[in-house]
Amino acid sequence: MKIRLLLFFTFFAITSGFSQVDITLYExxxxxxxxxxxxxxxxxxxxxxxxxxxxxxxxSSSAILNLQPDDIITAAYLYWAGSGTGDFDIKLNxxxxxxxxxxxxxxxTLDEIPRPYFGAFADVTxxxxxxxxxTYTLSELDLTQVVIDDLYCGNKTNFGGWxxxxxxxxxxxxxxxxxxYDGMQxxxxxxxxxxxxxxxIDNNNAKIGFLAWEGDANLAISxxxxxxxxxxxxxLNPATNAFNSTNSVTGSxxxxxMDLDIYNIExxxxxxxxxxxxxxxxxxxxxMVNAIVTKLNSELPDATVTIDDEFKxxxxxTLQVTYTVHNDNSTAPLPAGTMVAVYLNGNLITTFxxxxxxxxNGSESGTLLLxxxxxxxxxxxxxxxxxxxxxxxxxxxxINEQNNSYIHTTTLWALEPINPADITVCETASxxxxxxxxxxxxxxxxxxxxxxxxxxxxxxIGAQSQDTNDxxxxxxxxxxxxxxxxxxxxxxxxxxCSTIASFDLIAIDCTFxxxxxxxxxxxxxxxxxxLQVTYTVxxxxxxxxxPANTPIAIYANGILxxxxxxxxxxxxxxxxxxxxxxxxxxxxxxxxxxxxxVDDTGNGTGIVIETDETNNSFTLPFTLWVSPVLTQPxxxxxxxxxxxxxxxxxxxSAxAESLKNNPTDVxxxxxxxxxxxxxxxxxxxxxxxxxxxxxxxxxxxxxxxxYDTASFTLITIDCYFPDASVVIDDVYKQCNSRVLHIHxxxxxxxxxxxxPANTPVAIYANGxxxxxxxxxxxxxxxESEPGFIEVTVPLGIPLDFELKLTADDTGNGVGIVIETDETNNxxxxxxxxxxxxxxxxxxxxxxxxxxxxxATxxxxxxAESLKNYPNEEVTFYFSQPNADQDFDRIYxxxxxxxxxxxxxxxxxxxxxxxxxxxxxxxxxxxxxxITHNYLTPNGDGLNDTFFVEGLRNVFLNFKLSxxxxxxxxxxxxxxxxxDWDGVxxxxxxxxxxxxxxxxxxxxxxxxxxxxxxxxxxxxxxVTK
Length: 1024
Description:
Layout: E1 3-6, E2 14-19, E3 21-31, E4 33-41, E5 61-65, E6 72-83, E7 89-92, E8 95-98, E9 101-109, E10 114-123, H1 125-131, E11 134-139, H2 144-147, H3 150-153, E12 160-169, E13 176-186, E14 191-195, E15 202-213, E16 224-227, E17 230-231, E18 258-264, E19 276-281, E20 288-297, E21 304-311, E22 318-326, E23 339-344, E24 347-353, E25 363-371, E26 378-386, E27 405-412, E28 423-426, E29 436-437, H4 442-445, E30 453-457, H5 460-465, E31 471-472, E32 478-479, E33 485-492, E34 498-508, E35 516-523, E36 530-538, E37 551-556, E38 559-565, E39 575-583, E40 591-598, E41 617-623, E42 636-639, E43 647-650, H6 655-658, E44 666-670, H7 673-678, E45 688-691, E46 694-701, E47 707-717, E48 725-732, E49 739-747, E50 760-765, E51 768-774, E52 784-792, E53 800-807, E54 826-832, E55 845-848, E56 856-857, H8 862-865, E57 873-877, H9 880-885, E58 896-897, E59 903-910, E60 915-925, E61 934-935, E62 959-963, E63 969-974, E64 999-1006, E65 1016-1022
Parallel strand pairs: 1-19, 28-34, 42-47, 55-60, 61-65
Antiparallel strand pairs: 1-16, 2-9, 3-13, 4-12, 5-11, 6-10, 6-12, 7-8, 7-11, 9-10, 13-20, 14-19, 15-18, 15-20, 16-17, 16-19, 21-22, 22-25, 23-24, 23-26, 26-27, 29-32, 30-31, 30-33, 33-34, 35-36, 36-39, 37-38, 37-40, 40-41, 43-45, 44-46, 46-47, 48-49, 49-52, 50-51, 50-53, 53-54, 56-58, 57-59, ...
């Protein structure tokens, strides 16, 4: 069964929104243990009874610890707490302590202001064990500046205090389980705290203790502490006031705003209980629970097991381990015959039982030989689980059922087989059948761990017995004794594991020729597939002659062309040069790779064994000589040297580059086909003068001397023309009009002939034709003619558009005049049609009457809010004509006083070109007067009379009546009397003209106005 301890809290100022530290188990003690509290508050009085603003606190306080002579202190835990974010460095009996753990808490009250509080912890066991009974003083916990802050003083949550939970052992005590729980939880409306890890065997003398903060003795409103719906109480803690500034250890009831309460709960628990549910309720009191201690009878063993050591051999099928079964931190013996299960890599391999009953804190050790699967190596996991019969089921009820297992990871020793490769080298000399070998690299490459060792032997028996007389010590330069010769290698590790393998030493004949080939020269002719190739076959870097008739295969782009053979033997380091004529097949492209391969019969195989079989080929990229193709050049036109000369000036020098196929090509020009073919009598293509229809012959020659020819004609033309251009000089526009007055100029600059009269000029708006005008006069070279035209922009054209004039344009993009330059006829510029800005009607402005219909107005905001664009300007005026003419502006727009009610103001919005005007009214209204609640008639010029803002000169028929707290009329006034100065004039208090006493007075203000029919009733406080 679970224990339910119900603690419901409802704090008068706590709502949603908080942070806290959940209360959890901190430490557990099993044995003959009990506990007590020692501590004290820092508050000088209960904070709920102190006056507003009068909050003080001590920085130190003392308390006395009084244990029995046979009590042995086991643990002492110091807790301190208070208002604010925390003071975590304190002294206890003069010794410095810093908080080892902290418990921050934040509560958000009805005023929605978060208030932080704190708790702190330090382990002071050593100091308390050394000091023992006596006085304990906690000091330098300084919260003086925190608690006077209205944040805490104002809502009565200013506090500070400390306490030590002392756990002690006594041989006369029964076996108990003592749990210390801590955290920092408070109640929004209620809290529920689960206390786990309880093992209740007997309920005799069971008790629970609370360390709580901020409880008030005088806020006992529906405050109860219940267990399973049964109310807990004792002499100090009534049933309706659980947390009331009391100390159950000392019997004190003046532990202001903290509680050290201990309750007997033996009637509310039962054997077998494992958890407790704690809750608390209160009608007003705000309480924070910092620690809870339970003491319950518990007589249970607690079995644990450890693996102490292991003993293993290389590749063995068993593993020997030593182990110990413990009964530590228990309250009863562990029975003999308690089962222990052993698992290997998660699989059960054996079980055994304890031999003896283990007393409290007793143990039993033993040795166990564990069987291992055949071939198991590497890392393995061994798990011992006490109180496990091999099926995961135990037979012993324990204090802690979660600590029965022990995991041990170990590595089983074994060596993987090694497989060294055979080694082949050349014979020391031809036909010696022995070689010099270097197999020292195996000394490292065969290792899998740096601690392993490698040794070499002549025989397997020598390797097995590690015979030093059989061991090979010159592994880096070993001369073989037979061919092949077997060598035995042994690998050992520090664990005593070893493995043996073998490899062969093989000596081979290495005296061979080494044939290579290279292409020396290639001779060919234009447009021919026949090549005459000179090549050389070499026998460099060899140790034997290259025999005659060694085959040579010749390939073009990998296709076999032909084969040939060497004519004679080639000595060591000798060469043989030869020439062969080959024909390249038509299927081979112009650019190809020509490859000679020596010792190749034409199918990729040779007939000669060589030192190096990878260097037999030689490849040379080659291009067949093909006459270049000359692109047909275009005829060239040239202007007459002068009008009617019939002779033109020509420049066809660009053909010298543009007709090339490759940068190395050469282009020449000639006057006859014969000269072009013979490449004689070349002419200069730059500034060449010729009669019309002269034919020019061009020759293209490539780097190989191959060539092609073509011809083109020189044609003489007339090149004297005008050059019409136009510019827009000016454009005149009016606001809200689509009519343009365009001034323009047509010119014949850069022309070589006159521009005829009636040359058309087209006018466009956004590409849409508006009209076409014509020049009036013939324009000589360099002359201009101005013009003017009025056009209307169609409604379909937007306000922002492009205005374009095009000379020599009949309106469809076509001209009538041939010109020197047909690309400079246009002139375009952006234009816009100006419109008056849109002015939004400003609202009238109405403010409260300050007297006689007067008031001060601020309409400066309109200077920005009425703008459509940032560059517009808003100004204000007294009249419409002034607004239209921008005359006599109003500048004091933020503090403008009217002289008549209402007053009309005129506003002008100007966009830089056009403007718009509007107007609005400034007017006043009667507003409810504003009363003030303080009167200090002391002659200092401040609040000497009872002034009502917005009353005089606005409500001319008002009546003001002043009453004391008993309802007696003491003063009346109206518009014709002065403000009340604190002197009674109706029901006298004292002699004539006596000022009223300090206190609260009430007034009735009747405005006698149809808009305000109800009187104003309020209070005023009179003081000096």
